[in-house]
Amino acid sequence: MADLIDRAEGLEVHEVPDGYIVYQTARDKVHYLNKTAAVIFEFCDGRRDKSDIVSRVATAFELAPRMHDDVSNCLDSLIREGVLLCTPK
Amino acid sequence: MLDALQFLACDPDIAGASAIDSTIRVDRHGLAYRIFHGDDLLGEKFNVRGVVEMVQGHVFQLSIDDLPGAPVLHAACLRRGDRRLLLVGDKGTGKTTLTLRLLLHGYRIEGDENVFIRHGRVVARPRGLRVKEGSIRLVPELVDILPQLGYLTDHLDQRIYNLDPRLLGLDWRIEEGPADLIILLRANHGGYSSIRPVPTMWLVQEIMQEIGLREDARGAAIGAIVSLCSAANGYDLSLGDHDQALRCIDRACDHQTS
After folding, report:
1. How far is CA A40 from CA A1, A5, B154, in A?
2. Identity of the residue in B199, B219, B223 whose CB atom sits nearest the CB atom of A18
3. Between B199, B222, B230, which is nearest A30 by CB?
């Protein structure tokens, strides 16, 4: 069963006109999320799995199927950076 | 020694609470100089340059202590009418010379080196303008003024003067407030000058590279930087010809008001 994706603890999220600036206190690291990444981040609320999020972002932006991998890669990147967490359903 | 300490002289008009006096004393002690703040010994130096650098560093530290948690941005801070602009650039981009040209073009100075950021607003660090003797070539109005001023020499034995902007017939007043324009400088020595707006995210990224963040309260400091940048219009200025640069900045300021 696919994992649910949630935001990590200890993030300070600042909204700017062109996206989010996220300060990760645990790693003392700043992440710059463009508008698309910010929307992806917003969908990660601990209630959806990866395929659901990709599907919703694709619908929101009317993305062609070939772009779905980009959304998936963005999620993977944010997970690798510890900004997002995977938790078992 | 007194002549050398003139390099640190600085007395701008500052809005807000009255200044608090602190006494820093330099005593001769054999071959050395001892520097005291009140009764506390700050250190011992064996030459005038060392004394000046220690006093300068200590005064900077006092201003940092006075604004705990406020990040320090390496930027010149100027006013045009009621608008405030920050010039942000590395050493060698021509920030000081451009600042001088802007002053003589009708802008007012608050500070030429650092601003403290608090709650999305800035306040310039009080300090005289540091002007290299080589600037005379680009700002001939300085020819008669600089030789009267306190100075230090850099590693190339070039004089760096401490200029009170009032000697140029200008006001010098510092007050806390928002930045309306933040201009990132990129050197284009010998070339043309051009300016273009930049998005907020880019502005924050660039500012973060020029900022001194303290170990404590870094999250709050980043929040203050984001607030500052979100409320300002950001520009990237490729700095070559100074006359063109002045026109670029004038246009950016005018665009801000229209």
Report:
1. 21, 11, 52
2. B199
3. B222
> Is residue B5 left, alpha or beta, with left meaning phi > 0 and alpha meaning psi from -120 to 50?
alpha
Q: Which domain does B58 fall in, by range? A: 2-66
The closest alpha carbon to B162, from B2, B10, B55, belongs to B10
Beta bridge partners of B41: B36
Chain B nearest C-alpha distance from A1 (Å) = 36
Nearest-CA neighbor of B220 among B71, B64, B61, B66? B71
Give the CATH number, domain containing residue B78: 3.90.228.20
- Among the candidates B21, B47, B66, a domain finishes at B66
Contact of A25 with chain B, judged by CB distance below 8 Å, is answered with yes
Residues B54 and B122 in one domain: no
Fold of A4-83: Outer Surface Protein A; domain 3 (3.90.930)
State whether B201 and A32 contact (CB < 8 Å). Answer: yes
A21 interface with B at CB cutoff 8 Å: yes
Nearest CB to A14; choose among B205, B208, B223: B223
| Residue-by-residue pLDDT tens, chain B, 258 positions | 777 888 899 999 999 878 788 899 999 999 999 999 999 999 999 998 899 999 999 999 998 888 888 899 999 999 999 999 999 998 888 898 899 999 999 999 999 999 999 888 999 999 999 988 888 887 888 888 888 888 888 888 888 999 999 998 899 999 999 999 999 999 998 899 999 999 999 999 999 888 877 666 788 889 999 999 999 999 999 999 999 999 999 999 988 655
CB contact under 8 A, B201 and A19: yes
- Residue B162 main-chain phi, psi, to 5 deg: -105, 105
Alpha carbon B214 to chain centroid, angstroms: 19
Looking at the whole model, is its pTM more than 0.95? Answer: no
Residues of B with CB below 8 A from A14's CB?
A: 222-223, 226
ipTM, two decimals: 0.79
